[in-house]
Amino acid sequence: MNVHDFYFDLPQELIAQDPIEDRSASRLLVLDKNTGEVEHKIFRDILNYLRPGDCLVINNTKVIPARLYGVKEDTGAGIEVLLLKRRENDIWETLVKPGKKAKKGTRLSFGDGLLKATVVDVVDEGNRLIHFEYQGIFEEILDKLGQMPLPPYITHELKDKNRYQTVYAKNEGSAAAPPRSTLFPYTTLFRSYEGSAAAPTAGLHFTKELLEEIEKKGVSIASVTLHVGLGTFRPVKVENVLEHHMHSEYYNIEQSEADKINSAKRNGGRIICVGTTSTRTLESVADENGYVKACSGNTDIFIYPGYKFKIVDNLITNFHLPESTLVMLVSALAGRENVLNAYQKAIEEKYRFFSFGDAMFITTKEEK
Question: Is residue 280 in a domain?
Fold first, then answer.
């Protein structure tokens, strides 16, 4: 299976630069995974495709402002730091730009000294271990000094941080999508004790009102947590997809949420994941009968065509980067040709792509 099998040509002007005012007013392409048939709807129409007894599974990870701009104390030269994860106490694994200026022992300052730091080691892939020094609460200082790490394809300034956050974000401490810096085009960031690399952007289309309507219809909503690591956004650098290795990522499922998922499955309801992160979480923990249990751990699951899904029936997702592991995942569920054909139709209809873009619902005709 060649990585180029998942390539498509995307016009630059279709990359969404800003979130639309009404989250649920984004467009929705409905794809029949069996026939490849597509329909063009508005996202709030998703309500018409859900039915009583279904279970909607969301990822409640929360985005934080994990990108810091500072200076070297000795020269005043500018430096950019991306928090990856806390190793111990106030020592963090980070990405630094430019890395050559961040040798072991280098002293850094952020916010006119509100936050100071020392590079204590250089580890795998050139990441830096940095020890931070501050007065007060680190998270509050980060909220004051840090910026949302946005994808490199987003060049506009994000005016409202909450628009790069789902309305149900709960678990403090995830970072967001890949940072804007070209040095780190596919990585990022932070969890108080674990780490996350991306916001669950498929969930950005939901409003609280829409979620309430969904529950009133008799659809249960279950929350899981996946703190996405480098694997999701790391480019596939090998031609043979099977040789690509995903980084390990932390997940957690509470008992109450496992019960909702299992109850829906037991009673004939569909398991509908919001985003590839929820999908990877459930497929990592489901047993041979398609049931899950309360648990936490790490997963490096890589889903590509040929994979047999154990529990996930349908998927709500955004439009993804060419040749990415995310396009491979949706192709595993709906078929590569169906997905690429749907993408081509989305391009022809001028759908908006990527993090702030429109959505796709992968289902089957008899389920609509």
Answer: yes
Residue with tokens 């929705």: 28
Q: Rounded mean pLDDT of 118-146? A: 92
The residues with which 314 forms a beta bridge, in sequence order, are 272
What's the rounded Cα separation, in Å, for the pair 233 and 228? Answer: 9
Q: How many domains does the chain have?
A: 2
Contacts of 22 (CB under 8 A, 6+ apart): 207
- DSSP percent split of the chain into helix, strand, coil, nearest 5: 30, 30, 45
Tokens 């590569």 sit on residue = 336
Taken in order 95, 230, 350, 2, the sign of the CA dihedral is positive
Residue 211 contacts by C-beta under 8 Å, 6 or more apart in sequence?
167, 168, 221
Q: Is residue 311 part of a domain?
A: yes
> pTM of the entire structure?
0.86
Residues found in the chain:
368
Higher pLDDT, 303 or 165: 303
